């Protein structure tokens, strides 16, 4: 009996012949082909089954079937996240090509995929590690710090999206295209520090954000100027404040002077009014003469009884201290003496008045 060689025995079994890389990195949005070529042995006579599955990343998740070929028919709607984006590479996988294509890759498509070909009694499988990377998004470039000569400033560059590790590279696009000698770069954080910046550092700088699947870039303009004259600015501000204070003082002085002048004019006017008595009107003079005449007429028609009432002094009336008799330059006329007959005629009663000496004794 002929003994078969082990290698000859292996050739008679179903095997996957693909020899490409099993670890693949692709960018999001691209298409990937997971190569799974196979050959059948003469003794493999059972039905052909091809199954692609997504292996769990840990023991808590189950294996997910992605696509199946069985009974001469392809079934491509097993896994909902890949629905419409996964297909067999060959329209007839039974011809030895069980490769699978995934289109429009997403970061969530990252995982371990297994190709399993089975035709009883033969069976074989192959695994692929697919990593879907997101290319860097458009970075944002900006400068922080003062743009005056002799000061420190920082140029920053950052991408919101992008699979790590991300690397940032700074370049100068103007002038001699050399970075300032005192520039400090941080390729991971995306910063470039300019210490003791000078006007020579002015220009346009470009930041490039990159990872293994793509690059993006942005520009920032740097303009270093001389610092302003701080002493001159302070002196100007002080002078302006002093001028404002002087103007306010002059305004207050003018207002106070005008107020005092107005008050002085009012006091002079009051004094003039008090010193000059108002002139008597003709009407009041006529009334006074009329009053005097009426008093004389009434005195002539008085009876003795009325005369007694008229001559009776009124002691109950106290003269006011505030009353001041107006000065008169005319001499006071002596009291008139009426003759006895005239008094008798008027109805008066004669009264004897004892004579008195100068010392007041009765004679």
TrEMBL record:
GO molecular function: cell adhesion molecule binding
This protein's GO CC annotations: adherens junction; basolateral plasma membrane; bicellular tight junction; intercalated disc
Membrane topology listed for this record: Single-pass type I membrane protein
Primary location group: membrane
Location(s) in or outside the cell: Basolateral cell membrane; Cell junction, Adherens junction; Cell junction, Tight junction
Record GO biological process: homotypic cell-cell adhesion
Occurrences of domain Ig-like (ranges): 6-131, 136-225
Gene3D superfamilies in alphabetical order: Immunoglobulins
The keyword S-adenosyl-L-methionine is annotated on this UniProt entry: no
Transmembrane segments: 233-256
Keyword tags: Cell adhesion, Cell junction, Cell membrane, Disulfide bond, Glycoprotein, Immunoglobulin domain, Membrane, Receptor, Repeat, Signal, Tight junction, Transmembrane, Transmembrane helix
UniProt keyword 4Fe-4S present: no
Highest taxon above the source species: Eukaryota
Biased composition (Basic and acidic residues): 309-324
Protein known as: Coxsackievirus and adenovirus receptor homolog
Species the sequence originates in: Sinocyclocheilus rhinocerous
Taxonomic lineage from the root: Eukaryota, Metazoa, Chordata, Craniata, Vertebrata
């Amino acid at each position: 009996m002929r003994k078969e060689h082990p290698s000859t025995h292996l050739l008679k079994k179903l095997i996957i012949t693909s020899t490409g890389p099993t670890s693949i990195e692709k960018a999001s949005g691209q298409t990937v082909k997971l190569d799974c070529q196979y050959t059948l042995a003469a003794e493999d006579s059972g039905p052909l089954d091809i199954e692609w599955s997504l292996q769990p990343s840990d023991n808590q998740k189950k294996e997910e079937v992605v696509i199946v070929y069985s009974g001469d028919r392809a079934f491509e709607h097993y896994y909902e996240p890949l629905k419409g984006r996964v297909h067999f590479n060959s329209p007839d996988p039974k011809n030895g090509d069980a490769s699978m294509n995934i289109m429009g890759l997403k970061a969530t498509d990252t995982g371990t995929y297994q190709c399993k070909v089975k035709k009883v009694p033969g069976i074989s499988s192959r695994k692929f590690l697919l990593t879907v990377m997101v290319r860097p998004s458009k970075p944002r470039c900006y400068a922080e710090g003062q743009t005056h000569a002799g000061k420190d400033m920082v140029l920053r560059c950052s991408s919101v999206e992008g699979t790590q590790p991300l690397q940032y590279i700074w370049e100068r696009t103007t002038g001699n295209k050399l970075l300032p000698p005192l520039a400090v770069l941080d390729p991971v954080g995306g910063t470039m520090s300019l210490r003791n910046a000078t006007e020579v550092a002015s220009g346009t700088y470009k930041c490039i954000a990159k990872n293994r699947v793509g690059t993006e870039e942005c520009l920032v303009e740097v303009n270093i100027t001389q610092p302003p004259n701080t002493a001159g600015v302070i002196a100007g501000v002080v002078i302006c404040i002093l001028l404002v204070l002087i103007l306010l003082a002059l305004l207050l002085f003018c207002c106070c002077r005008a107020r005092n002048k107005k008050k002085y004019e009012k006091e002079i006017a009051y004094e003039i009014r008090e010193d000059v008595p108002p002139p008597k009107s003709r009407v009041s003079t006529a009334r006074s003469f009329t009053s005097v005449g009426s008093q004389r007429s009434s005195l002539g028609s008085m009876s003795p009884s009325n005369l007694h009432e008229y001559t009776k002094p009124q002691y109950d009336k106290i003269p006011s201290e505030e009353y001041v008799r107006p000065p008169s330059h005319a001499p006071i006329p002596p009291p008139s003496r009426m003759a006895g007959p005239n008094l008798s005629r008027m109805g008066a009663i004669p009264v004897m008045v004892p004579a008195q000496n100068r010392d007041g004794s009765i004679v």
